Amino acid sequence: MILNPLTGVVTAMATVFDEDGSLDLISTASLAEHLLANGSDGLVVGGTTGESPTLDDEEKLALLECVLGVAGGEAPIVLGTGSNDTRHSVELTARAAEAGATGALVVTPYYNKPNRAGITAHFEAVAAAAPELPIILYNIPARVIVNVSPDHLAELAAIPNVVAVKQANDDEIGPIEGLDLLAGNDSGLLPVMESGGVGGILVASHFVGNQMRDLIDLCLDGETERAATLDADLRPVYDAMSVTVNPIPVKAALEMAGICRATMRLPMVEATSDEKAEIAELLEKGGVTF
């Protein structure tokens, strides 16, 4: 039986670029070390927050190798291998498994808007490319247009190595038979945990990873009121991460913190001065100071 490797606080890691837009693997390693030392139980590289649409496969695999080296087998490291081209996802997922990834995060195909049968066939093909690799489905209709309904997710759980879902549709948070439930949005962490979830793939954990882990532990211990209070305290940090489209705010805040530069690849652009001011204000309100 293949188990879900992701529980607790899993950070959807930003990708660090040099000023010329090339990968900065030295700073990537430093960021990974920082996250694992500050509340992250695991990391996802090459996901949405990692600017995956502008990374080629060799870059994604280089990031994976770099972060695996930092983790040293002590934390799960998952690679985002999803795309809207099944052949592409099949190849990258197989290569991720060969490279030692702990799992693959596979988003619903976007833009071409496949129907239910096409989505099922897509995930079956990707999972079959690496039958021993845990596959985490990623449902995020705000970005891909298509929503995978709870009953369809439960149907996909019949694929042997599909083990969990990153649920970024906050309107349909609830248990999915056969799948572990992971929050896909920072604001969804508390309701996911209240629905029997096992953690989240998160962005605010770049800055409040320890507090988000405390929230998860409180939920697991049945301390619902204390968890709700902590969640309310963290809301300004969650809001900071959505001042403008992700990952612009997280990279702006990482630069403010002196952790890494905020360089982005087009069509993503760096935060404006007004956006930076709002991000800083919200972070301070949430107890994050630099």
Polypeptide structure, described:
The chain has helices spanning 25-36, 57-71, 86-99, 116-128, 141-144, 150-156, 189-194, 205-220, 224-240, 248-256, 273-285; strands at residues 8-12, 42-45, 77-80, 103-107, 135-139, 162-167, 180-183, 199-202. It is of the alpha/beta class. The chain has an eight-stranded parallel β-barrel with strand order 1-2-3-4-5-6-7-8, surrounded by five helices. The model has no long low-confidence stretch (mean pLDDT 97).
Topology diagram in text:
Layout: E1 8-12, H1 25-36, E2 42-45, H2 57-71, E3 77-80, H3 86-99, E4 103-107, H4 116-128, E5 135-139, H5 141-144, H6 150-156, E6 162-167, E7 180-183, H7 189-194, E8 199-202, H8 205-220, H9 224-240, H10 248-256, H11 273-285
Parallel strand pairs: 1-2, 1-8, 2-3, 3-4, 4-5, 5-6, 6-7, 7-8
Helix pairs in contact: 1-2, 2-3, 3-4, 8-9, 9-11, 10-11
